[in-house]
Amino acid sequence: MAKVHVNEGYELYQIITDFGDPLEIFREGIQNSFDEDASEIYICL
Q1: Domain around 29
Q2: Cβ pair 31, 43 in contact under 8 A
Q3: From CA 37, how far away is CA 35, in angstroms rounded?
Q4: Alpha-carbon distance 32 to 30, whole Å?
Q5: Residue 2 is assigned to a structural domain of this protein
């Protein structure tokens, strides 16, 4: 079975550029945490 290589830097760039304001990525992460009933959320800057 072949291994799949993911360019993490490129993927992160793609995610960030999908949002109009790069800070929206934090809002999306927090919203996803609430949607999944997370009991804790950690954000490190």
Answers
A1: 20-45
A2: no
A3: 6
A4: 5
A5: no
